[in-house]
Amino acid sequence: MSDKGTESAANGAPQVTENSITAGQNDALIVAKDVTYSYRNGEQVSRGVKGVDLEIRGGEFVVVLGRNGSGKSTLAKLLNGFLVPDEGTVTVNGVDTADDDKIFDVRSTVGMVFQNPDNQMVASVIESDVAFGPENLGVPRDEIEERVTEALETVGMESYRTGSPNRLSGGQKQRIAIAAILAMRPKAIVLDESTAMLDPKGRREIMDTILKLQREKGMAVVLITHYMDEAIAADKIHIMNDGEIIASGTPREVFQNEAAIQRAGLELPVAAKVALNLKKAGLNIGFALTDEELAEEVAVALTEEKCESK
C-alpha cells in the first residue's frame, strides 16, 4: 500500500481523523528549495533532479512537463516524501518531508496517483479499496462511509461501488485510484503520468476529474505529464530537462518560449503548432493556445487579407 502513502499507518503511525497539516487557498502548500536527488546503484550514480526550486499553492493547478528521463517523476515523488532530497528541502506547509516523525502527515496531506492504477488496488471490491486509506487513518466507520460516497461521487463512479475493479476500463480504474486518495481528504494530489497508459477517452475522463477537483474542491493538483495538450488549462507550467526546471510560467508564456520547448525535446500543443506553421507560411496570425483561439486568429487574418486585396 506504499503507493497510497499509507504504509506508515500500517506500521503503527498515530491514529488521527484529520490531517494535522493545513493550508488555505493560495497559501504556499508545497515548497522545494534547491532540491537535488540522485539514484545510486552500487558505484553508479545517475542524477534525478538538480537544484530545483518550486512552489505550489493551495487550489493551484500545476503541470510539470518533460520527456522520459527529464526528472519529472523523480520530482513528483519528492513532493510528498516518497523520496527525500540529497540536498535542499521539500516542505509541506512548513513541515520538512525529511522529518520521519511527520511523514505520515505529509503523505496524508499530499496524495499521489501513479501511472498504473492496478498497482494501487488493494481490494476486490471498489468501495473497500476506497475505504482502505481512511481506515488506516483511524477514521470512524460512519465517517468512512461518508468519505467513500463523496469520493466516488466526485469522480463519477458511485454506481460502481459494489463492483470489482477488475471489470473497469483503464480510465475508470484511474478514477477509482483518485477516489482512494480523495477519501483521505488531502490538500493536494500529485498525478504522476496518470494518463500515460490510457486511450484518448480515458485521458479525457481523468482531465475532467482533475479540473473538477481543482475548480470545485479547491484542491491543489500537480500533473506530471509529457502530453502538451493536458497543460493548456494549468495555472502554471514547469518544463524539465536533464533534472532541471528550464522554464516556468503560464501556459501562454511557456508555449511561446520556443527555445525551451526545443531544448526539452517537446512539441507545442496542436493549436499553437498550427498557428506557428501558418505564420511561417506567410499568414499574419497571432499566437493561439486552443482550437477556438486558432479559428478566431485564422478568421481575422483571412478577413484582413481580403480587405487589403480590395
UniProtKB/TrEMBL annotation:
It holds the Pfam family ABC_tran. Residues 30-267 form the ABC transporter domain. Keywords: ATP-binding, Cell membrane, Membrane, Nucleotide-binding, Translocase, Transport. It is found in: Cell membrane. PROSITE patterns: ABC_TRANSPORTER_1, ABC_TRANSPORTER_2. Coiled coil: none annotated. PANTHER family: ENERGY-COUPLING FACTOR TRANSPORTER ATP-BINDING PROTEIN ECFA1, HEAVY METAL TRANSPORTER. Belongs to the ABC transporter superfamily. This is Energy-coupling factor transporter ATPase.
